[in-house]
Amino acid sequence: MPALILDNVSKVYAPRRRSWKDRLTSTPQQQGFRALDSVTFTVEHGEFFGLLGPNGAGKTTLISVLAGLASATTGSASVCGHDVVTDFRQSRRSLGVVPQEIVYDPFFTVRETLRIQSGYFGLRNNDDWIDEILSNLGLLDKAEVNMRALSGGMKRRVLVAQALVHRPPVIILDEPTAGVDVDLRRTLWEFIARLNKEGHTILLTTHYLEEAEALCGRIAMLKAGRVVALDTTAALLARVGGSDLEDAFVRIMHDDEFLGVTA
Ligand SMILES: Nc1ncnc2c1ncn2[C@@H]1O[C@H](COP(=O)(O)OP(=O)(O)OP(=O)(O)O)[C@@H](O)[C@H]1O
C-alpha cells in the first residue's frame, strides 16, 4: 500500500455568491474554478517526492485535499491506506503538514505550542521528543520564549516542529524554505533528510528547484491543475534535457513538446 494515493482527484472551487448588485444588473452566475484536474499518482513509503509547479498550479490545493482541509470535488485520496474523507482521523494522524503560511497563537511559548499540538493527537509526556525536535531545528534556546517574540524564520522552524510532534510517517512540506536564511535551510534539510533515511515519506513543494533536484528522487509537475510530468528526477532531466532541473522545468512549462512527460 503506497504512502499517498491520489486517484483522479479534481477540485472545483465554488463560484463567488451573487451579490444583490449582480442580481439587480442581471450579471450571470460565475463558473467555479477548477484548481485540480484529474490528478492521479502515488508516492511509495520512504520516497522523497517533489511536487513542483508555477504559482497557482494547484500544489497547496492538493496538499489541502490530502490534509482534509479541502474536499475533492471528484476522485479520492488516501494516506497510508486511510481515505482522507471516510477515515479522516487515521489519515490525519499519519500526516505532518508544514503549511506555507505562518500561523501561530501569540499567547504561548514555543514549548507550550508544541505541547498543545501534541495534545491534539492525544499525546502527553511528549517532552523528550519535543526537546529532540527543538534541538534538531536549532530552537532549544527559544523553548520558553513567547511565539510573538520570534523572528519570521524562527516561527517557520516552529511550524516544522509542530508538524513532527506526533512522529507522522508522512511529512508534507509546503514551501518550507520561503524567506528563510541559509542556516535554517541547511539545518532543516539535514533534519528532513535524516527523517527520510529513517523511513519517513516526504512530499515537498518548493520554488527553489536546485533544492528539489538535490533532494527529490521523484518529481511530479503540475500546470493549471494537471500533472504534466511525473518521473524520477534523473529520468526527467535525461528526457527533457537542459542543464539542470530549473531548465527542464521551464521547458516543460513552456514547450508543448514536453507536456505529458510521464514514466
Ligand atoms: N479558496 C479558494 N477559492 C477559490 N479559488 C482558490 C481558492 N484557493 C485557491 N484557489 C485558486 O486555485 C488555484 C490554485 O491555487 P493553489 O494555492 O493551490 O496554487 P499553488 O500551486 O499552491 O500556488 P503557489 O505556488 O503560489 O503557492 C489558484 O488559481 C488559486 O487562486
From TrEMBL:
Protein name: ABC transporter ATP-binding protein
Source organism of this protein record: Pollutimonas thiosulfatoxidans
All copies of domain ABC transporter, residue ranges: 4-249
Key words, A-Z: ATP-binding, Cell membrane, Membrane, Nucleotide-binding, Transport
Pfam families: ABC_tran (PF00005)
PANTHER family linked: ABC TRANSPORTER ATP-BINDING PROTEIN (PTHR42711)
CDD domains attached to this UniProt entry: ABC_subfamily_A (cd03263)
GO molecular function, one term: ATP binding
Gene3D superfamilies reported for this sequence: P-loop containing nucleotide triphosphate hydrolases
